[in-house]
Amino acid sequence: MRSEDICATLKTEDYVVQPLVDVSPPKWHLGHTSWFFETFILLHHLPDYSCFNSSYAFVFNSYYESFGTRVIRTNRGNLSRPTVEEVYRYRRHVDAAMEQLLSLPISNELNMLIIMGLNHEEQHQELLATDIKYILGHNPLFPTYKEITNSVEIDFPTDEFIVTKEALYNIGYDGNGFCFDNELGRHTVFLPAFKIARDLVTNGQYLEFIEDGGYLKHEFWHAEGLDWIRNNNITSPLYWHWIDNQWHYYSASGIQPVRLEDPLTHVSYYEASAFAAWMGMRLPTEFEWEAACNKFSWGDRWEWTASAYLPYPGYIRAAGPIGEYNGKFMVNQMVLRGASIVTPTGHSRSSYRNFFHPHLRLQYTGIRLAQDIRIIHR
Amino acid sequence: MRSEDICATLKTEDYVVQPLVDVSPPKWHLGHTSWFFETFILLHHLPDYSCFNSSYAFVFNSYYESFGTRVIRTNRGNLSRPTVEEVYRYRRHVDAAMEQLLSLPISNELNMLIIMGLNHEEQHQELLATDIKYILGHNPLFPTYKEITNSVEIDFPTDEFIVTKEALYNIGYDGNGFCFDNELGRHTVFLPAFKIARDLVTNGQYLEFIEDGGYLKHEFWHAEGLDWIRNNNITSPLYWHWIDNQWHYYSASGIQPVRLEDPLTHVSYYEASAFAAWMGMRLPTEFEWEAACNKFSWGDRWEWTASAYLPYPGYIRAAGPIGEYNGKFMVNQMVLRGASIVTPTGHSRSSYRNFFHPHLRLQYTGIRLAQDIRIIHR
Amino acid sequence: MRSEDICATLKTEDYVVQPLVDVSPPKWHLGHTSWFFETFILLHHLPDYSCFNSSYAFVFNSYYESFGTRVIRTNRGNLSRPTVEEVYRYRRHVDAAMEQLLSLPISNELNMLIIMGLNHEEQHQELLATDIKYILGHNPLFPTYKEITNSVEIDFPTDEFIVTKEALYNIGYDGNGFCFDNELGRHTVFLPAFKIARDLVTNGQYLEFIEDGGYLKHEFWHAEGLDWIRNNNITSPLYWHWIDNQWHYYSASGIQPVRLEDPLTHVSYYEASAFAAWMGMRLPTEFEWEAACNKFSWGDRWEWTASAYLPYPGYIRAAGPIGEYNGKFMVNQMVLRGASIVTPTGHSRSSYRNFFHPHLRLQYTGIRLAQDIRIIHR
Amino acid sequence: MRSEDICATLKTEDYVVQPLVDVSPPKWHLGHTSWFFETFILLHHLPDYSCFNSSYAFVFNSYYESFGTRVIRTNRGNLSRPTVEEVYRYRRHVDAAMEQLLSLPISNELNMLIIMGLNHEEQHQELLATDIKYILGHNPLFPTYKEITNSVEIDFPTDEFIVTKEALYNIGYDGNGFCFDNELGRHTVFLPAFKIARDLVTNGQYLEFIEDGGYLKHEFWHAEGLDWIRNNNITSPLYWHWIDNQWHYYSASGIQPVRLEDPLTHVSYYEASAFAAWMGMRLPTEFEWEAACNKFSWGDRWEWTASAYLPYPGYIRAAGPIGEYNGKFMVNQMVLRGASIVTPTGHSRSSYRNFFHPHLRLQYTGIRLAQDIRIIHR
After folding, report:
1. Where are the domains of chain B?
2. Cβ neighbours for D50, distance < 8 A, ≥ 6 positions apart
3. Neighboring chain A residues of D13 at a CB cutoff of 8 Å
4. In what order do the strands lie in the sheet with C246-251?
5. Do B18 and C83 touch (CB under 8 A)?
6. How far apart are CA B50 and CA A175, in angstroms?
7. Helix, strand, or coil here: C246?
């Protein structure tokens, strides 16, 4: 299964640590996604299913208030047990039971739950990849995750902009497949005309911002963004290191010089927003992004938008634990659109809404610029 | 001047303290608003103006990054000097100079700046009133601010809802008078049909939420709202005290029993949002509010909306210090609409956008409920 | 009364603020010392005494666990009421009642309590003086406390050392007057021979330490001292300011250049200890100090010793609130001996033990060096 | 080697985590002690020694300011690499080189260094054992460390006290073998007569304290002790759990009911001191302990004394890194005497001084009571 492939090159020790409160240990991701299948599906729908270890509910629960006491997130990195081997045994136990379940007749409701479980696992695959990068990339020995020998061919970035005209647009999921509840409530929005960049901002463009003293020019920053860069001594994207008078970048194959033509990644919303302001532009709203996204290629970097993460019209939080999935996070976070190079195939779609606090940058976040077409005068 | 009237019943000591990082000492408000006139108007536009005390720039500056080092906000409550009397002398000095300036011919640009300064002072009058309430309401002696003998006649609240139809609406300031830059960029939004309450939520309605265990029912709360109420042991609105088996409320005339028919006030966005969810409803967006506000009366309580504080289309941060006024705060805050009982007359308008972090409740914040008319099914 | 004399030049506002958790607002000191007389003496011993305001117990209690809930210390600076005028009225009320009590026959036990109350007030007079210095000395306007026109004649400091021979010495209070319980338990200690400086370390000597990079030389510091100077960016004594390429010092009469021959003051135990190590010497123990103190003059600066604050043999904590006076603080603090220029006349004696956490330096603390006479070889 | 024996039953994952800032991951202990031999001995004294991995200095250095940047202690639990296997390989590399060195002629100075390295490793063996207990004992699965089938025969505790007479005693190390520098400076102290308990306080005695509400009786506690128990909700010794209406204890073989006759362990200095006060007694000073320790048996529990950790007369911090070993910690800590059940054989002696901050209780700490013989009257 893909989750385990992502971990293929890890040492046992790499599965255990939690160097940041926003990172989870890989073995926790592996255990948690199986716990999700066990708790929401197997215990209710597979007759005679035997729970692998009832105390795992305590260890692998995440944010689900509906289930008793939760382990506070900061503690995940303190738990040496269950061991990695036990977690893999747990996964095999759950996988086998799921196979058994799938050989039985499946109701529609159950089918929905299974699809939900798979999508949940795909989300954690993405997190697994970024959390592993954080774990290895913050080790002073800078271990290699995977040798990447053939560099990906990338199209040389352009500075073209795509014009989108003023109109009513429909926003939200519109198909018959799976989507998360936060994409539902398809609705109409009115958008004034705008321009949006065909390509993502590159390392080279961002380097100009750095060299122009962009991190010191308060006029381009949010007040809370300034506090964040000052309190944390932020002067470059995450994983950038100034070595031998040159910017380097920690990637899966170790430390290497920054390639100027590569798309920029691992910046916070604060940095994305300040960079756009420095360019005399702005970030697109999530509605602009969705309205225009069929005119450019996307999927390499999660793209920060200028939209706060809020419910669509008509959004209703589902009852029970499933209802905790998205709605409870709809405050103080910004929307990202698109997908990234570690997003599982098939997991992305144009209506997909990801979201992070504005200071986070573990994800492969990037910047696509936008601009108003007519400036409102006064 | 009205700012000084607000302070008329204060003791000297009340001007000095800062019991919360979000509160400023009254003497700071008084000094800061005069400093604003001195710095942005008098020093540039009144020939031969003599600066009262050049070190005041250090003390009374607020968040303007453009001006050297700022006093960090938490330190305002440590400064016993300048004394209250000196601050009043400073105000008289600045007021006299402003009168002199107003006797001279005034350019359009200067006129705009003066209007800006007056509106800035009005904003601080509102803050003064709420900060004084916080200072006195958190003193164990619960001092009286002002005896209020004749209770205001209030219309008995109804539970009527006003229906607003699906349409395109124009949002933003549209007149010829003064407005803040965050109201500009008048633009069109498409709104689905919705219902909005004619009256504000009352203390009695909120008490039912409390008595139903609303503060313990996680399913109605944002995850960060839950953290906030748990970490701060929040179980009721600010200024509510459980005394002799009855809820009491600290008001300008001291501690008194909560009156059930009064509009609820001093709740955070988290509480407002949880209450609305408990009612099976929601808060209106700021666009819905503006589209419907001519059909109900408002102005008693600042009303939390479901909208994050973000720029309107076409918003451009002005150059220089004036540009720091609003744009730099456009992240992590929620919009309030309307006005409150301590808003200076003439300072409110239907396009006015106030904003606070979701956990703050020093302001006279209230709740107006809204609801979708058709639920989106799937 | 002397407490009020100390405050004679204060503005009302100066009485209110608390710029550091270890500082109390002057009005709190004034109220607290009267509360002490009221609570421990008047309420029990003056028939028909009428309590001034029963809620003052809540405001002016300090650390006495025996009396209900205490106001946590950090909150003292938030209380604008009672006003300064009310506090003075409270003091006159208590003073009048004390005079009335003193006109009645006094039991021995009551006499002891009164003497205790007076000594308690003297301790707070010392704190008042240092806290006022901190309040004014941390105001960016650097207000003058008192013009000092005639500089004190000081003996030019020497670098002489006094030799004290190996012997048994008696330590602890030995007279018939008042002393605190921590001085009791007169007992014998055996001391090896040692040398102790006749004079205190001067500013000039300490400046050499600074200029030699003493704050950067880890080998002279305790590990926790290093953490303290690094986390707080400490590079000089408190109240020293580097202005116009010269060290200045905030004193009662404002900012003035550091005088090299003056005794050093306002250093922490960590700094005192590091300086002594840099000199190749050490601080004296409190026993050495007491054994030798009749051979040098003291009383200008509280002198850090190398002794932790611990009970003497036979120490017993008194029952009830009085017992909380000293014993509960006998951990994590270092002993100071002597007295300082703000110690009330008659309050000092050679057995007096003051104590502070090793990082504090609001007091007029100084350094007297000591040295072993024979080095133990191995 | 014994260090590795201690880890014999661990899973790889147990070597990695750091659940508390005062705990180090077992693999860090293993790497650090080998690094000590490599850095202070092999690199200087074994010709042609090849450093295993120069970046290990960064990872396995501890508190030695003399060696470049140190990894702050909180980060040790974030490092998944070097792996456990690599650490063991490192140990074999260093062990082999040490064997080679030992086959060469050894100077006296080198001999001293080697003995120092062995004693350093023994100290870490003790820490290893306690840190492992903390890691496993704070895992919700409560893993077994080692099955202990045959319970140790223990002598039934008595309540006898041993009288020690007033006299001059010699304190400090007096032999020809190895000792740490903090034991040197053998010196004379004068001690009044005192009584000291023959046996350690038992669980049963401490349970009476708990059941009498000892944790709530402020009169027995230091002020900072009260803050500590309140802020951390401390109501029993570490590793005690209230399960099924009975006190249980986490031991090497898992959770088991508390045995009343066993010696109490895992209490802080604050708890030890409060318990002694509740008994109407006190803790012995380290001098009393050393003067009397040949009259009782010890070595099961580290015993808290009433003495702060300070240098003996004549103590001199050695130059260079070795000098950082002890002297820099001589502030804010209390002395423990004796040894514990996890102290390596031969590592203890009557002059040995251990030390911890007063709130720590990971060690097998215990209580031996003492009492003055004559109470000083006044």
Report:
1. 2-137, 161-372
2. none
3. 12-13, 15-16, 27, 80-81, 83-84
4. C240-243, C246-251, C254-257
5. no
6. 70
7. strand
Q: What is the pLDDT of residues C315-329, one digit of tens each?
A: 887 776 666 678 899
Residues in B closer than 8 angstroms to C82, CB to CB, are: 141
CATH for the D161-372 domain, from 3.30.70.270, 2.40.128.20, 3.90.1580.10, 3.40.1000.10: 3.90.1580.10
Closest-CA distance of chain B to residue A218, Å: 7
Tell me the ipTM for this assembly: 0.93
Q: Does residue B72 register a pLDDT over 50? A: no
Contact A81 D16 (CB under 8 A): no
CA B140 to chain A, closest CA, distance in angstroms equals: 34
pLDDT at B155 over 80: no
Instruction: Residue C355: name the closest of C321, C323, C325, C329 by CA.
Output: C329
Distance CA D212, CA D279 (A): 12
The whole-angstrom separation of Cα A334 and Cα A338 is: 14
Neighbouring-strand partners of residue B366: B303
Residue D305's closest CA among D265, D358, D260, D347?
D358
Q: Residue C349 half-sphere exposure, CB side, CA atoms within 13 Å?
A: 16
The sign of the CA dihedral A256, A262, A263, A264 is: positive
User: Which residues 6+ apart lie within 8 Å of C197 measured at CB?
Assistant: C159, C160, C161, C162, C296, C368, C369, C370
Percent of chain B with pLDDT over 90: 83
Do β-strands C167-171 and C354-356 pair in parallel, antiparallel, or remain unpaired? unpaired
Is it the case that chain D and chain C have 3 or more CB pairs lying under 8 Å apart?
yes
Q: B with C: how many residue pairs have Cβ under 8 Å apart?
A: 95
The alpha carbons of chain D give a radius of gyration, in whole angstroms, of: 22
Q: What's the pTM?
A: 0.93
Query: How many degrees, rounded to 5, is the angle at CA C162 between CA C159 and CA C163?
Result: 135
* B174-192 tens-digit pLDDT: 999 999 999 998 999 999 9
| CA–CA dist A229, A373 (Å, integer) | 31
HSE-CB for B194 with a 13 A CA cutoff: 26
Mean pLDDT of the C74-101 span: 94
**Chain A residue with Cα closest to D16:** A13
Neighbours of chain A (3+ CB pairs under 8 A): B, D
Contact partners for chain B, using 3 or more CB pairs closer than 8 A, are A, C
**pLDDT at B368 > cutoff 80:** yes
3-state helix, strand, coil in chain B (%, to 5): 40, 15, 50
* Residues 41-80, chain B, touching A (beta carbon < 8 A): 63, 65-66
Whole-angstrom Cα distance, residue A112 to residue C332?
Answer: 61
